[in-house]
Structure formats: structure tokens, C-alpha cells
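[job 4471] stage=fold_predict status=RUNNING
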Amino acid sequence: MRKRITLSQIARTAGVSVPTVSKVLNGRDDVAEVTRALVQDTIRDLGYESPQRRRALSHGPALVDLVIDRLTSAYSTEVMRGIVDFAGVEQVEIVISTVSSKQTRMADSTQWAQRLSAAGRRGLILVTSEIEQAQLDSFAAHGISVVLIDPLSTPQADIATVGATNWAGGRSATEHLLGLGHRRIAFLGGPHLADCNRARLHGYHSALADAGIEADPALVSSGEFSSETGVVGLCRLLAADVRPTAVFAASDSIAIGVIAEAHRRGIRIPEDLSIVGFDGTQLGEQTVPRLTSVAQPLFEMGAAALRSVLRLSRGEPIDSIHVELATRLVVRDSTAPPRP
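[job 4471] inference complete, writing C-alpha cells
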């Protein structure tokens, strides 16, 4: 009988600690890329199989579908990286496809579930997509486990979801601007009915209320999580003569649109207008000036979603049906006190 490889053996061979090996196996993102690659190579070289993997082998290899609304977004790319990295550790096959929210809603629930079942899929991860209850019922009837990452709307049934602390993130972004002395703070959001967008908006309102500031409806608008929303939103604010001194954008993409339009109009950032984004993607390091943003643990969200869908597909309990990972404010160069 083949001797089982332990975490201690992996750590000793790779020259790292056992906790570091554990972090890599669990899809944690607080490990340097070089170290992560070294540990993953060692895991493969030694032929390590996790307890979950050994149980899954008795049922054949796990095949999981990953459906993303837009592969081109920095948000989706980082989430996908977490899923693919963890899949490499668990030796799970991931099939990636892009389907818009409209296409997801219109898809025939029975045919979709039958197609995945016939292809041997055991799980489905949907990223920022809308899905109907009838579709979830069909997946359950065909034995396909589903996990939603940042769903635009949460179904009524107890479906597993993974997201971030959006309310707390929205509040921390607004509190940061208030702390700098801003009082006219605009909110440029994504889809009005999206759960994550509403939570960020509520956090914004909460921070304003605690500061004794009445929210001005003229400073709040919604759209899509895209740069176009930032461009249109800033144009609308300026045309209505309700110029804010700061903008809280509900995504980094929206913030980038605001920055681009501000540059075109000769509005200096942060001297004339401060801007805070939401997501914490690498885009924030590439803007001029660098973007202050509420960072979501996107890599860990991806890994957590795959971990949950694998456990559900094996009939194992998961830690929580709704997982919310903590956000953190990353202050860069796009925010400053307002001019006197």
C-alpha cells in the first residue's frame, strides 16, 4: 500500500513551515507567489492527496463549471486566479465559460442542468451573475452543487454564496473621505438592485448619517460596474451643477471612468476631486494618480467558492452557507483634503 504523504514531509522538502503548506492547500492569498509555486510543485512531485481528494477519487475526477459574466474585468480575473490555483492543489478540472447575466436568466433551466450532468459536471460556480430559482432547482435535481460569488440578487432558497463585507467597505470608504474633511461626497454605483451595490450604498449612507450629514439624492446614481458609468456619472454631476469634492465609486472600473473624464475636463485629482474605488484590483496601481480603493479578498473568494462547491458535491458539510470575507481600505494617491 502506498504510504501517505504528510504536510510535514511537504514542508520539510520545500523548506517552508507547515502553516505555509496549509495556507497553500486552503487557497489562502497571504503567501508569496514564489513560495506558493514551490509548495505546489512539491505537492505534485511527492504525489500528495488531501483527504477530500482521496474521498473524491472513489467517485471519479471532479469537474466544475465556472461561469463568469466578463473575462476582461480585473475583478473576474483575480477571482478566477483563486479558483484555478486551488483547483491545481485539489487536481480538479475547471471548465470556464462567459455568459452575461441576461443570457443566464434566459437559459433553459432543464437543458442547462442536463447538459452539465451529461458532461460529468459535479459543481457550478457563478460569478456576479443573476440566476432564477427554477434553474437552481434543476441543478439540485441533477445532483449539481452550485455556489454563487457576489450574486447580483440572492435567490430565496438556501444557496451557497461567497462575497465580501460590502456594507463595511462602503462605510470605510465614506469615513475615509469624511475624515479628510469632505462633506459633498457623491456615490456612483453599479446596478441599482444588485445586493452588493445596495450594501455599499447603505454603508455610504450610514457613514454620512453618523457624521450628521443629510444625504443629497442628487449626488447618488447607479449604472453598471463599468468605466462608462464613471464617465456618465461625473458628466451628470457637473451638468447638474452639484459638483462634489469627492466621489465614492462602487467599483474600480467606475472609478477609472471618473478619473479619465476628470482628466479630459482639466479636473485635477486629488486637488480638485478625491476618488475612492471598490475592489482593490491591480488597476488601482496603474491609474494616475494611483487609486485609493476598498480591497476585496478576491483571490480568497475564488478559493473559498471552489472549496465549498467541492464539499457540497461530496455531501460534506460546509462552514457557512453564506461566506463574507473582510474588506480593507487601501489608501493611495487619489484622495486628499478638499481645497479651502
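[job 4471] summary: The chain has a mean pLDDT of 87.
[job 4471] exit 0
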